[in-house]
C-alpha cells in the first residue's frame, strides 16, 4: 500500500518497464494488497505469496484479461487494478 501511495498514477497507454501494477480487493478499493512489476509486453513479475517463488506471469493468467483490455481503476472479478510509476523523493 505504501508503494502505491508513493507512486504517480498512470494510464495503461503510458506503462513502461519498471512501472508497478497494484491490486486491491474490490470491497476495499482504496487499500492496495499486492504489487507486481511490469516488465513489458504482457508480462509481470510478482511474488505471489508467502513461501512461493517469484514468478513471471501474464496479465491474462493473473487477472483473466490481456493488458490491452485493462485500464487503471478497472474492477476485474474481485480485484481492482491500478498502474503507477515510482516517484523519487528529494
Q: Gist?
A:
Helices cover 10% and strands 40% of the residues.
Shape: globular
| Helix and strand composition category | mainly beta
Taking pLDDT < 50 over at least 5 consecutive residues as the criterion, the unreliable ranges are none
SS field, number of helical segments:
2
Main sheet, how many strands, which sense, barrel?
7 strands, antiparallel
Quick one: how many beta strands?
Answer: 7
End-to-end Cα distance, whole Å, is 21 Å
Radius of gyration: 12 Å
Question: In percent, how much strand structure appears in the residues?
Answer: 35-45%
The average pLDDT score comes to 93
Q: Roughly what percent helix? A: 10-25%
Strand and helix map with partners:
Blueprint: H1 2-5, E1 7-9, E2 20-25, E3 32-40, E4 43-46, E5 55-58, H2 59-63, E6 75-76, E7 79-86
Antiparallel strand pairs: 1-7, 2-3, 2-7, 3-4, 4-5, 6-7
Amino acid at each position: 500500500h505504501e508503494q502505491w501511495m508513493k507512486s504517480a498514477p498512470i494510464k495503461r497507454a503510458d506503462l513502461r518497464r519498471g512501472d508497478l501494477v497494484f491490486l486491491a480487493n474490490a470491497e476495499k478499493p482504496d487499500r492496495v494488497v499486492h504489487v507486481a512489476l511490469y516488465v513489458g509486453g504482457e508480462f509481470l513479475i510478482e511474488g505471489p505469496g508467502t513461501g512461493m517463488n517469484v514468478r513471471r506471469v501474464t496479465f491474462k493468467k493473473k487477472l483473466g484479461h490481456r493488458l490491452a483490455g485493462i485500464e487503471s481503476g478497472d474492477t476485474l472479478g474481485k480485484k481492482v487494478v491500478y498502474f503507477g510509476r515510482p516517484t523519487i523523493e528529494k
